[in-house]
Each structure stands twice: as C-alpha cells, then as structure tokens.
Amino acid sequence: MTCVLYVHAKGGPPPSHALARVAAKATVHLLALAEPPASIAAELAQWCASVTRTVRGEERDLVDVIVERAREVGAEAVITFSEYAVVAVSQACLRLGLRGAGSSAGLARDKRLMRIAWDVHRVPQPRFRAVTTLADLQAAAAELSPPLLLKSAWSAGSTAHQVIKTPADAAGAWERSRQVMEESADLGYAELYVPGAREDFVVEEIVEGDARGWFAGEGWGDYVSVEGVVADGIFHPVCLTGRMPTVTPFTERAGITPAAMTAGIQDRIVDLARRAVDALGLEDCGTHTEIKLGADGRMWVIETAARFGGAMTVPQVEQAFGIDLVGGLTDQLLGRDPGWPARVQDARDARGASGSLVVLAVHADGTPWSERRTWRTEDIVRSAPVTPGNAFGVVVESSLPDGELVPEYDPAAGANTMAGLCTLSADDPQSVLDDLAAVIDAMPSILRAPRTRGSVV
Predict the structure, then answer these.
(1) What pTM value is reported for the model?
(2) CATH class (in words) of the domain with range 209-350
C-alpha cells in the first residue's frame, strides 16, 4: 500500500476525522508537531503505522525534520491540515519532489503578501497596509479610513484582532495584539516555520457587511466561505458554508453547510473566490476562501488559505454532500484521480444540512455570561433545545474536559477562549441555524456554576 506522512499540528479538522480518511487511502506515518488529542490515543495505533513526536523548541529546521522523516518511511505524499504547518510542509514537498501547495504557498499564509497579490490582480478587498512597528501602524491609521482592524499576518481563528476607531487607539491595539500572539504561541497556535512571524501585522479598513438579500432566510452572518481544492493548478470549488453573525470583534461562532442561497447568487460568489485563489498560483492543496457580503451585491475577499477550513467544516461537507475532502486530497497528492465535482454543489445537491457551533461564554448579542460555568458534555447533549429529529452532539476532542471552567471570552484572543465545539444536522440549513441560535440562548442555563465547598448540586 502507498505511504503518506501526516504532519499533525494545532488547528484544522478533528484529527479523528482526517486520520481515519487518510488511513483508508494509504499507510499513515504520523509526525506530531503538537500532541494529538488524548481522546483518540487508543485509535492512533489503528490508523498509524508509526507515531513520531517532535520536541517543542528544538533547534532543528522544521523542513529538515519533515524531509528526513518522509524519507525514512518512504512517503509518497506529505499532508497537513494545520494552518501553522502549511508553509513547512509545502517546502518539504518541493525538496522531496512531491505534490503540494507549491512555492507560492506563503501567499496563502502571509496576509500581507496575499493582499499584495490581490491588488495586482484587482481582486476586491478592504484597503490595507502592512505594519511591523507601532510607527507603521500610526502612519497607516492616519492614512486609512476608520474604523480599522489590526490583525496578525500569520494568525488564524480571529486571534489578535483589534479594532482601531481613532489614531489614538493605535498604541493600545498594537500592544494587545502582540501580547495575544505571544499567548497563542504558548498554546501552540502560531506559525511553526517562518522566523519572526509574530512581528508581522496588517491593518485594514472595516468594510460594512450586509446579509440582506443574500440568503433564503433570516439570522445569517454577512460572510461565507467557499470550500474547494486546487488540483494541478486548477481551482475546483466544492460548496459554500454559511455563517452566523460573528462575536465582537470578528470571532467566528458557527458555520452551516450548505449556505441557504440560490444557485445564481452562489455562482457570483464562487467567481470571486476563483479570482482570489487563481491570483495566488497554488498547485495541489485544499482551499478555504472567506468573502464578506455587502449591500447592493458588493463583495470583498477577506482571506484564502492553502488548506481546508478548520473546526467541523470538512466533516460538514461530507455529511451534506457525501464528498470526502480529506480522502480526495490524499488521492490527489498520490497522483490518483479523486473525481472532484464538475461544478460547485448547492442546496439542491445536498442530502441534508450540517452545522457546528463554537461555544463561547457570551450571549447571542455578544454580552458576556454573568458568571463562570463548568463544562459537562453530558449536560449539553441531554439538555440542548433542538428540534425533534435533528441530531446534536459534542466534538469531545475539540472541547474542554468535563469539569473544567469555561474561559471568559476575550475579544482579542478570539477562538483561543472557546470552550467546546458542538455539531447539529437537520434536513435544511435554516433549521440548523435556528437550532444553533436556540442552543446559544440556552447554554448558560444548561451548564452549571462551579461547585464550592459544602454546596449541593
């Protein structure tokens, strides 16, 4: 059987989903740059012929480590689903002569280079400036039109985001964003290969989104993501994922596949996604392209990644459309024909709808919970107020262990303060959206306050 080196790091789809599907296509050797979730420890021996763990902070070049291990196991493909390992894996594949995202993978990772490439190709996006110092930020804040959003050029999960309403806000935003990047690195949510990545930032104008007229229903957020793949340099859009409104400033809360849109509207969005992906010159990789929706049909590209969407995006696509993105990419990297869809899928092609919810300690309107709560999976599954017949669950490997306190939501830390990940499936996307909204409202009541000495619960 063919052999694949699977490079695991933080982020991406749940490892249990991805590893099982790669293992169905080839013998898997796991190179763990971060410790795999404890909940799947027993399954690793079933999925993986070997598991090699790197030592955090070791001085060896990461690409050298990947190349050496790939040669040791005779890997015919090297694959990762982590944003933080994309550049290292793409460089390793180039050195090994294997298929991968290619030499321009960094354009889909560094938000500064990404936006410059889009400017060259006239892809609509917010006005921006690259910044590496406070002086750069202050100059940009005086030039661009507020409000502005400061973000790390290498972050993911809406971390290190700071809104700048006036130039006077620049110094505080700069300090807080840099602090969050250091905290994220301690948690393992940081670029693993590029030196000095924590010092690189971009500031951009905040465009005004408007979901009205885009969706066949109410309650949707003003942006979508286009899930796809680049195969032999050609972009293949697969489907769209709709969103609930973000939590201040722009932390993602929930995604629903498929998006509740007409085919005509969806085609317009896909055309813009194609322009954005094509501008980056990628070769063989998954893609995840986020697009902001505005009034009067206006759109702006937010960002593109040379990997599939994180959280439950990949499992949602499989449940909704029966398309195994992980298995397909594995086949692609091994030189096989995955049979990518001839056209983008929409609600007419779906066998149902699937969504996921990031649990944050805030109400629907973004205000924080009044007191801390204790995470308990059983309580959530038993008490979630979902429509009869709809299926609800908790992704244990992406959630806190039972008994731990739900973190207080920190707008600057974004997804770093998530407590858990829930899933919901139904016959149609609007039903998923409505049920997830009900779960958000009920969550503070479902979870109990922490026990104190002498208390009875």
Answers:
(1) 0.95
(2) alpha beta
